[in-house]
Amino acid sequence: MAERVDTQALLRLVTWLSPAFPVGAFSYSNGLEQAVHDGHVTDAESLRLWLETLLRHGSGWNDAVLLAEAYRAFDDPARLALVIELAESMAASRERHMETMLQGEAFLAAARHWPHPVLDRLGDGVAYPVAVGAVAGAHATGLEPAIAAYLHASVSNAISVAIRCGVTGQRDGVGLVAALEPTIAAVAREAEAASLENLGSATITADISSLRHETLHSRLFRS
Asked: What is the mean pLDDT of residues 170-174?
């Protein structure tokens, strides 16, 4: 039977994954700025393909699986400690590590407005998807909605990055959000049923872009 989500839990989820929630997501591009610089992403269609690939086969998929495990483990300290350690170790570059850890720290600091013992179990140094997953689990937001909201926020931030890099405009950006809805929904369903054994990435170009961004001579974003 599907987990029932009440309105209050849904409102919390919407708040936590809102662009206004103070995690500093606008500062990071997850290597997309470098991909634009190198000519891998040049227009709305190539951006759609880039994001869809990350969602299905790259960092988006891995984040979704880690979030799901943290959601299920929020009240099991030993199990939660394992996913915390694994998530940090999976960062593909120094900047990707900085991005996920600093956003996780900022998320937990802001989430203290919704007190729960899980915050003490998490501490401060936790990767972003683990922080979101454990807090969402503690507040029973529903696992699939939590994954979908997280992925939607990630896609929306990436499209905002692309707009600021001059790849696309706001109208086409909104169209991309709509076009990627089926992929986000499908990945959320698959990740809900996945385990840590399903972790894996095949987005080598994206990982290289994240590494190369460390030496990009002029940049807008921290990753």
From this structure: 95
